[in-house]
Amino acid sequence: MRRIGHRGAKGHAPENTIAAFQKAIDLGCDGVETDVWLADHGRLVISHDPPGRDASLTLDEVLDFCRGKLEVNVELKCVASEERARQTGARVAAILARRADPDVYVSSFWWDALEGSRSAGPSVRRAFLFADSPERRTFLETARAAGLWALHPNRAYVTPAFVRDVHGAGFVVNAWTVNEPSEIATFAEWGVDGIMSDYPERVPKD
Q1: In the chain, where the domains are located
Q2: Among 25, 94, 122, 150, fewest CB within 10 Å belongs to which?
Q3: What tens-digit pLDDT sequence spans the chain (206 residues)?
Q4: Dihedral sign computed on CA atoms, order 25, 166, 181, 46
Q5: How far apart are CA 193 and CA 164, in angstroms?
């Protein structure tokens, strides 16, 4: 099971900062999750919430820091605009395709963001984030048609049957945000592939 630091290592350092990503390295993480926005000035900036004018850390800076050290799950963020989501996905995927970082992929709650990334960078791996319980057969068919690599369920929607069916359809399962050791152990028994955690040191290493 992969140890994935949530927004770096949010439980130990300010989220989405170089300090948090360094802490994830120190804690033996396989990867980290971070959040990117297409800001009004056109830059791709790192922030969980909509970025203010003081947001300065850029996607390229994070990828430069993590390259060769951590896998990076870049969550494509957006508010209330399918077109903006698509633009964000396309911009990020174009950068990832140009950089050719083998250990970077994108995820999003927005199908439009994932479709934008698919159009601009077909080789970039994509994962769908969700926090509900969609009808599974249709959901998996949609994910397959979208060419996804992984599904990222909120921890509340992970069940043994879900993990079995998703694996059977050929997808990876990375769950978020899982902090309780007992739940992490249960998910490991069920075969979850990766755990995103604020306290990633709690995720056992093989």
Answers
A1: 2-127+178-202
A2: 122
A3: 999 999 999 999 999 999 999 999 999 999 999 999 999 888 999 999 999 887 899 999 999 999 999 999 999 999 989 999 999 999 999 999 999 998 999 999 999 999 999 999 999 999 999 999 999 999 999 999 999 999 999 999 999 999 999 999 999 999 999 999 999 999 999 999 999 999 999 999 86
A4: positive
A5: 11
Tokens for 179? 């902090």
CATH H-level, domain 2-127+178-202: superfamily = Phosphatidylinositol (PI) phosphodiesterase (3.20.20.190)
Structure token pair of residue 152:
């990222």
Q: How far apart are CA 54 and CA 202, in angstroms?
A: 33
